[in-house]
User: What shape does this take?
Amino acid sequence: MSVINLIIDEYTKSADNYDLADKLYPSLGLNIEKYRDMTINALNLKQGDTVVELGCGTGLNFKRVLEKIGPKGRLIGVDITEKMLEKAKKRIHKYSWNNVELIHSNFEEYKFPKDIDGIFATIALSHSSKHEQIVKRGYVALKQGKTFSLMDFKKSDGVSRIFTPLLLFFTGPFPENGKYIYRQAWKSIEKYFEKTTFQEGWGGFLYLSVGTKI
Assistant: This one.
């Protein structure tokens, strides 16, 4: 089975309990809601903006974005797993959002629309070994002055690294024996964007990388 199919299989299995699992992060000392807010706030969105979320999952970030872009804005959620998107559709229907478009696609194959106002991903992009190509295409698609915001897990270089097995266990049996935490997708942000910031959290296991196109 290919890595992509393994990812689809794992997220399909976890779709029903994904939102519940997200609520368990605080029990591990991670205020995930804080970092979701930080990721989206970094985009500096305004009313009417068009935003792409890579790895939208069940739509946990939708409300945050829509509060900023308003009814005239457009949110495009991209995900590789159909069952996750089914959950996202239910969320959209529940809140009667009519400006959210869902795209079933592998990140590596997704073609960004032109002149968009923001791109972001939360705990998603590092599952792709081709994150650099994705970031590069995102840079090209963004308007001048706009931002790509990336929050993801990483390997801790501090004393907290002894808890790496716990992180891998909690985040599930993802493919390639957990290689996703060793992928340094933030370096792709720093390679292509002229203005960047980087900060770590949760004992070095989590980071927020923000790149703005100048």
Observations:
- The two ends are 41 Å apart (CA to CA).
- The chain has nine helices and seven strands.
